[in-house]
Design goal:
Layout lengths: L7 H4 L9 H26 L9 H9 L3 E7 L8 H14 L3 E7 L5 H11 L5 E4 L1 H9 L21 H7 L9 E7 L1 E5 H7 L14 H14 L5 E4 L6 H11 L17 H12 L3 E4 L4 H9 L5 E5 L1 H10 L7 E4 L12 E8 L5 H15 L2 H11 L2 E2 L11 H7 L15 H16 L4 H12 L2
Parallel strand pairs: 1-2, 1-3, 6-7
Antiparallel strand pairs: 3-10, 4-10, 4-11, 5-8, 5-9
Helix pairs in contact: 2-15, 8-9, 10-11, 17-18
Length: 457
């Protein structure tokens, strides 16, 4: 899966070579200033006006003076997980559609899935949920819990969405269970200052933000020999941030998580087992069954780890602006590869609609989706709130933003979006539990075999 929307100014970011601490410090200072301006602009934009897009049923409600109440639950996708930011977007919608009242709840990845499971059991699922195809298509859609959004895909705007994004939002039965808003490519990050002090910068390609598996090992060794005994952690307390550990393992020796047709899981390949053995035996890398991805990010930003495997542009913005513990230059990287190009795990986020048996609420939810996606100015605010990239061509959305220009290069390294493979929710659970077993001392071949056996039950 390749990105097709990088603009010339963004592609030129590949040509900037970073050669010294002074230059990196200047870049970091500029990033902080520009990000602060960007966040302030996002706050203003999120409170701006609406658009003239209505359905017949909504017009009837306006004339009758009736109000439909719907609920929106959002996972923390950038500032879509921030109640203030989302409330501003909702306020602009409700100024245009006073006949629809939207209640919002912001979820976390630690307990969001459980909250939705409990709501489904009680018959009180939200009308709208903001998440990705791995949940909307491969999980709730697979279970028949979501409304088909195919009619939304008939619009002129939907026709501009990249084909690979469209395919990820469509279930194999032909139904669309997601309408996308934004996308990104997840990467990893290193402590540039610590790498410089340990002499590990020699092992990374600064121009392309990439490295080989051999150089990854050399860098870890150099850091461990320096003073950094905890170089990186394979966090596996739960499934949060598992895109990082999957991408690390798959890239090291060219392994894959599924087949190309997205029908069979291939975690038990020799390439993946070889990668797990490398990580398990590499001094400076540890498997921690008690660490979640948020813990890893926090430890990295405190300087306790030399690298983070759970990283992306949105995390970078949040940490650089708001985290007082962060006092070093964060250098984003692709995952190391033994041969060829890295395959980064992509992220796609958008809206799904739970079918609660109420046609009026389903139609109101679709009206909300149209409002957020069909008008360029409103859609731009929705994307900026995510701190990610549009799913259709939108020129210079992050013009003059150094950080987003730097991170835009990773979208060109997006690999296959395999998170729509049947049984995905079970595979995710099996993955972090398998990593836990390895961390607790179980032999890798045995742990991988148990994962495959459990998945096929």
């Amino acid at each position: 899966m390749r990105s097709i929307f990088l603009h010339a100014s963004q592609r030129n970011a590949r040509g900037r070579r970073r050669t010294g601490a002074t230059e990196r410090e200047a870049v970091m200072s500029a990033k902080r200033k520009i990000i602060g301006v960007l966040l302030a602009a996002m706050a203003v934009l999120s409170g701006c006006g609406g658009m003239d897009q209505h359905t017949d049923s909504v017009e009837n409600q306006k004339q009758d003076g009736r109000q439909e109440e719907i609920t929106l639950w959002t996972f923390p996708v950038g500032n879509w997980g921030n109640l203030t930011s989302v409330s501003r977007l909702i306020a602009s919608f409700q100024r245009e559609h006073p006949e629809i009242h939207v209640k919002v709840e912001c979820l976390t990845y630690d307990d969001g899935d459980e909250k939705i499971r409990e709501a489904l059991q009680k018959g009180s699922a939200p009308d709208l949920v903001f998440e990705g195809p791995e949940r909307l298509v491969a999980d709730w859609g697979e279970q028949g819990l979501l409304a088909d959004l195919s009619d939304l895909w008939d619009s002129e705007t939907a026709g501009k969405i990249y084909e690979n994004i469209r395919e990820a939002c469509r279930h194999r039965d032909g139904a669309y269970y997601e309408f996308p808003v934004c996308m990104t490519a997840h990467c990893m990050a290193v402590n540039y200052d610590l790498f410089r002090e340990a002499g590990a910068l020699a092992y990374i390609d600064e121009e392309n933000h990439s490295w080989t598996t051999d150089n990854f090992v050399k860098a870890v060794d150099a850091l461990a020999d320096y003073t950094q005994k905890r170089v990186g952690v394979i966090y596996c307390k739960n499934q949060s941030g598992d895109q990082g550990t999957r991408a690390l393992v798959n890239n090291l020796y060219g392994g894959k998580f599924t087949d190309e047709a997205h029908r069979v899981y291939t975690v038990d390949s020799e390439e993946n087992k070889r990668a797990l053995r490398l990580l398990k035996n590499l001094e400076g890398i540890e498997f921690d069954p008690n660490m979640a991805s948020a813990d890893e990010i926090a430890a990295f930003c405190r300087g306790e780890l030399a690298m983070a495997f759970c990283w992306n542009a949105s995390i970078a913005i949040t940490q650089i602006v708001n985290n007082s513990d962060l006092d070093f230059d964060v250098f984003p990287m692709t995952f190391p590869v033994s041969d060829g190009e890295p395959k980064l795990q992509g992220g796609i986020w958008g809206f799904g609609v739970f079918d609660n048996g109420d046609k009026g609420r389903i139609e109101a939810a679709k009206t909300f989706i149209r409002f957020m996606t069909e008008n360029d100015s409103v859609y731009k605010r929705a994307v900026l709130t995510s701190s990610f990239w549009p799913v259709r061509d939108m020129a210079e959305i992050y013009e003059n933003d150094l950080l987003m220009t730097e991170y835009s290069m990773f979208t060109d390294e997006m690999g296959d979006y395999y998170q729509v493979t049947p049984g995905w929710s079970k595979a995710r659970e099996g993955w972090w539990k398998m990593l836990q077993k390895i961390g607790e001392g179980e032999e890798i071949d045995e742990a991988v075999a148990e994962f495959s056996s459990w998945l096929n039950r």
